[in-house]
């Protein structure tokens, strides 16, 4: 080999070594997590997941990034929870709606008129009762990092203004795939039609169902004013949300990293609650502008009276003591 060739070879090798050294000095590539939810990126779920991602990046010095899949891109809430179980979805921000089918202990939180206020709901869910429910998730193949919020649900329909249970009777109303909600609506004499959220807009457009019920932020985000004329501010049930993590992610974490995920999820839940509550406070005016006729003088006492047989069923199912412990929780 000529001297010139040797020199060229040496230069090339030196260059390769320099590149390799630079590569090794780079931090490990961030791991991307897939997060799914049923509403647009601008919704309370989007705001919550963004806050969680930012906190996680800060705590872990960028070890994880979060790619968001809003608006049912990964399927309905039940499908996304299944995805978390099998590891095809990493993070799910979901209403408690379908979660009772996986973790039955969550169902008690879906009882109508159980929580009197946001403060009441937060105190129960963030306290020992809520924690005991979160602790049930691992044995059902899921990790629940924090309680978030969907909000107080309100009835909408395309047929008539609803103030009383008599007005609601006979309406065909989509419910979530949740036994506690279905029992309540059946008891009220409406025709409950359980259906996954992604199918709901079309079902209302085509008249397969007359109406549905959801928090104001959801009604706005999903553009239901395009297919629903009447909004009843019934606030008939508080709808919690959950930030769920796939065990396929959780089981690889060390204790410090688990702490980061929990802390990040709590920051996400806080931001989610704030956005859901801001939407509930400001969104009704926007829905009016979009053409909805709004009933605010709802006969809540009559609805509670009409629900009595459902409450008897819940007492048999969950135990009156457990229900009272939530209803009378001091905060
Ligand atoms: O989580 O299915 C529902 O009505 C939920 O409230 C909605 O997907 C937001």
Automatic annotation (TrEMBL):
What name has this protein been given in UniProt?
C4-dicarboxylate ABC transporter substrate-binding protein
Q: Which InterPro entries match?
A: DctP_fam, TRAP_DctP, TRAP_DctP_sf
UniProt GO cellular component terms:
outer membrane-bounded periplasmic space
Q: Which GO terms describe its biological process?
A: transmembrane transport
Source species of the chain: Azospirillum thermophilum
Sorted alphabetically, the keyword list is:
Plasmid, Signal
What Pfam families does the database record attribute to this sequence? DctP
- GO molecular function: any one? carbohydrate binding
**Entry-linked Gene3D superfamilies:** Bacterial extracellular solute-binding protein, family 7 (3.40.190.170)
Q: Which domain of life is it from?
A: Bacteria
């Amino acid at each position: 080999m000529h001297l010139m060739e040797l020199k060229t070879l040496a230069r090339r090798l030196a260059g390769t070594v320099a590149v390799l050294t630079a590569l090794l000095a780079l931090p490990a590539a961030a791991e991307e997590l897939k997060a799914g939810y049923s509403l647009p990126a601008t919704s309370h779920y989007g705001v919550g997941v963004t806050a969680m991602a930012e906190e996680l990046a800060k705590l872990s010095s960028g070890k994880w990034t979060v790619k968001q899949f809003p608006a049912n891109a990964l399927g309905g809430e039940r499908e996304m929870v299944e995805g978390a179980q099998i590891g095809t979805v990493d993070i799910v921000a979901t209403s408690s709606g379908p979660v009772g089918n996986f973790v039955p202990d969550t169902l008690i939180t879906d009882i109508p008129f159980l929580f009197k206020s946001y403060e009441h709901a937060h105190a129960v869910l963030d306290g020992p009762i809520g924690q005991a429910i979160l602790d049930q998730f691992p044995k059902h193949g899921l990790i629940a990092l924090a309680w978030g919020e969907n909000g107080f649900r309100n009835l909408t329909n395309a047929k008539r203004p609803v103030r009383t249970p008599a007005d609601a009777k006979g309406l065909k109303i989509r419910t979530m795939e949740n036994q506690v909600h279905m029992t309540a609506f059946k008891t009220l004499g409406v025709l409950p039609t359980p259906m996954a959220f992604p199918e709901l807009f079309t079902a209302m457009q085509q008249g397969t169902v007359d109406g549905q019920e959801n928090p104001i932020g959801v009604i706005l985000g999903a553009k239901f004013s395009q297919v629903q004329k009447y909004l009843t501010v019934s606030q008939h049930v508080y709808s919690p949300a959950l930030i769920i993590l796939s065990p396929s992610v959780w089981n690889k974490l060390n204790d410090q990293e688990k702490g980061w995920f929990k802390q990040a999820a709590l920051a996400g839940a806080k931001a989610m609650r704030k956005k859901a509550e801001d939407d509930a406070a400001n969104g009704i005016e926007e829905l009016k502008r979009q053409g909805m006729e709004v009933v605010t003088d709802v006969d809540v006492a009559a609805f509670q009276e009409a629900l009595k047989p459902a409450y008897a069923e819940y007492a048999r199912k969950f135990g009156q003591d457990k229900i009272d412990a939530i209803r009378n929780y001091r905060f």
